[in-house]
Design goal:
Blueprint: E1 3-5, E2 13-17, H1 22-34, E3 38-42, H2 48-59, E4 63-66, E5 72-76, E6 89-91, H3 96-106, E7 111-116, H4 127-135, E8 139-142, E9 151-155, E10 161-166, H5 172-180, E11 188-193, H6 199-211, E12 217-219, E13 223-226, E14 237-239, H7 244-257, E15 260-264, H8 277-284, E16 287-290, E17 294-298, E18 306-308, H9 313-322, E19 330-333, H10 345-355, E20 359-362, E21 366-370, E22 378-380, H11 386-392, E23 402-405, H12 417-423
Parallel strand pairs: 2-15, 3-14, 6-7, 10-11, 18-19, 22-23
Antiparallel strand pairs: 1-23, 3-5, 4-5, 7-9, 8-9, 11-13, 12-13, 15-17, 16-17, 19-21, 20-21
Length: about 425
């Protein structure tokens, strides 16, 4: 097992340029591949998850030209649904933003396909998406554990129509339908059962669909109408914002240590839901300055909060780590979807917070954290989850000796994370 012992930090200050948003990068790659002509993508994220999408699109014969650092990418699109490839087996690792939309796209293509992932993906439920596609006429079978990949898809039978899908588990299932169904022959109507979670991610999806020339409408996120027989249209150039979820760790570091950190490539008009993290840390006591192309955070004394963070589930993990340094109790509510991410994040966060000395209570959809008087030195287990590793790197801003087990998991979305963190730590 690899380990990384984090150095002691006296002060945090500096500027950071963020890699592109994972969610936007994989959506942009897919929609560019489905559009006619060439699309130039700028600030594309170079990571394991985007590598999986690039490889999958390559199987369809899509030509993608990448600069060494991926800052410049040109995609030669197919102008509509792909043809079934000779190699019909798709391996997507643990990339949820790749496997879910590709499953929906494959369900539209005539042919038989196998969709699989790594050991972690084989434990991540995909049944809500499969059930929705089945309602529309797809034939999909589980080849391993029920409700999880690998899947066998017999595609090409979806014409559009009415479908119901649960909204209280994850927005990625609905996003996958929204991205795929404009390419079906007929109009589709989606009814959301229960309260829709992570609505900002749906706004992000609808925004990029619009930028690529496809329309869809909704009524209070509970009913969606997607006209069929549409074709994505290339915007020619598309700039991918810096990843707001990744920004949260640098904002948090400044807030914890009383320093000042500016993040470039992300601004007050961001389409990403996790930009709401800045509002939450203001409630905790940090000072936040927002401009068009950058956001700056200056730290101060932190206090605990009691908030519903359903709209920013990934960044809520950063808040949980910040709770170690806040005065009083921090309660994070309405985060049931922590349990269906890369790992059971509720279990992972509670376990590692307790190792650090915090008193922790969890329920089905909430966590209550009382900080320790002094943070314990310990080794942090990462559970194959990039966000667990990055969130708990913040514990090193205490006087404790913190070692991260399997730090390479950050390659999923931010391979250079620990180097960038070190660049603002003194």
């Amino acid at each position: 097992m690899t380990q990384l012992r984090l150095p002691q930090v006296d002060h945090v200050e500096g500027e950071v340029h963020l890699p592109g948003s994972k969610s936007l990068s994989n959506r942009a790659l897919l929609l560019s591949a489905l559009s006619p002509g060439e699309t130039r993508l700028h600030n594309l994220l170079k990571s394991e998850d985007t590598n999986r999408m690039v490889d999958a699109l390559g199987q369809f014969g899509i030509h993608i030209s990448l600069s060494k650092d991926w800052q410049d990418c040109t995609v030669r699109g197919h102008a509509g649904l792909f043809h079934a490839p000779a190699n019909n087996k798709f391996f997507l690792g643990n990339a949820g933003t790749a496997i879910r939309p590709l499953t929906a796209i494959l369900a539209l293509i005539k042919g038989e396909f196998i969709v699989d992932g790594d050991k972690y993906m084989r434990e991540r439920p995909i049944s809500h998406l499969v059930d929705a596609l089945t309602q529309l006429g797809a034939k999909i079978a589980y080849l391993g554990q029920k409700d999880c990949p690998p899947l066998k898809i017999s595609g090409g039978q979806i014409q559009g129509g009415s479908v119901r899908i649960r909204g209280d588990v994850s927005s990625q299932y609905l996003t996958s339908l929204l991205l795929a169904l404009p390419l079906a022959p007929g109009t589709s109507e989606i009814e959301v059962i229960g309260e829709q979670v992570s609505k900002p991610y749906l706004d992000l999806t609808l925004d990029i669909m619009d930028r690529f020339g496809v329309t869809a409408s909704h009524t209070n996120y509970q009913a969606f109408t997607i006209p069929g027989d549409q074709t994505y249209q290339s915007p020619s150039d598309y700039l991918i914002e810096g990843d707001a979820s990744s920004a949260s760790y640098f904002f948090a570091a400044a807030a914890i240590k009383g320093g000042k950190v500016r993040v470039n490539g992300l601004g007050k008009n961001s389409v990403q839901g996790d930009i709401g993290f800045a509002d939450v840390i203001e409630e905790m006591g940090a000072k936040v300055t927002r401009e068009t192309n950058w956001i700056e955070v200056e730290g101060d004394k932190l206090v605990g909060i009691d908030m519903d963070l359903n709209h920013i589930p990934d960044a809520a993990m950063t808040i949980a780590a910040m709770a170690l340094f806040a005065e009083g109790t921090t309660t994070i509510r309405n985060i049931h979807n922590w349990r269906v991410k890369e790992t059971d994040r509720m279990h992972a966060m509670a376990t590692e917070l307790r190792k650090l000395g915090a008193e922790v209570e969890t329920g089905e959809d909430y966590i209550v954290i009382n900080p320790p008087e002094e943070i314990n030195s310990t080794n942090i287990d990462t559970y194959g989850d990039h966000r667990v590793a990055m969130a708990f790197s913040l514990a090193s801003l205490s006087d404790a000796e913190i070692t991260i087990n399997e730090p390479e998991v950050t390659a999923k979305t931010f391979p250079q994370y620990f180097d960038v963190l070190a660049s603002i730590c003194r």
